[in-house]
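Exam prep: given the inputs below (a chain plus zinc ion), describe the expected output before reading on.
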Amino acid sequence: MARVLAIDIGGTKLAAALVDETGSMLRSATRPTPRTDVMVALAALIEEVTGDGPAPEAVGIGCAGPLDLAAGTVSPVNMPSWRGFPLRDEVRALTGLPTMLAGDAQCMALGEHWLGAGRGSSSLLGIVVSTGIGGGLVIDGVPLLGPNGNAGHVGHMTIDPYGERCECGGRGCVEHYSSGPNLARWALANGWTPGRPDGLDGPADARNGAADARALARDAAGGDPVAVAAFERGARALAGMIASTAAAVELTKVVIGGGVSAAGPVLFDPLARALDDVAGLAFVRAVKVEPTTLGVRAGLAGAAKLAWSQSRTAA
Ligand SMILES: [Zn+2]
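Solution:
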């Protein structure tokens, strides 16, 4: 049976899988992203997945950005040893196969469109809400990558032009309000004391829990008013970005993944209320927002779909 090689490259983890036309993962493996010699680790991972089987037909890679699709190079923020790294050519030389490259969040959106919560949607935005906020658009079944691969950078859409300065240099970006670290940052600045996951009295510390978005979600679910307010504020910023994007490209569906999406109703309930308040036009109000169904596998699924679009036997 024909198969392609899917690769997902992030700042903390490298993942690879062999994927058939139906999206089934026949073999997969992961390993931590090393600080240096990333290509050596990636080559070993590819060998582990493809080693003793029939060769795949093509390779699809989703990689953390920024990237330059025209040149096939990547400069992931969390991987300082790769700056302008010619990833596409390196993998093509290593495997001898047609190789396609896209952003990790673009692959997440494509994966959800192929096999997940975005199936059948004609105009989809996939959002990864995690340490940062990334996104990808799939319009009429085709990923909208942009000339340099930067389309879908929704985390740096301004939802308040008078807002605080973002790390990107812009002002009032949604990432500055709604990413995991920024949710926790705002909550801590407004008096949140992380509760103990063991249920005992006293503040959380290094032994019993961190002051991160996961702890914040747990406390919001438990009714902590500052934690609830932090998610309401973050959800409202996301709603502004979603309504704006929906107005621009007539979104029909939004799929949200990433670690923060695991917060569940403490994120999605205020998001639905905020969208109801923020969105006006009927086609904007009609957009459906759902959590990921593929989870961490969405990026690999999208990378596989990207590869299939290049193979002789297209899926
Ligand atoms: Zn920004």
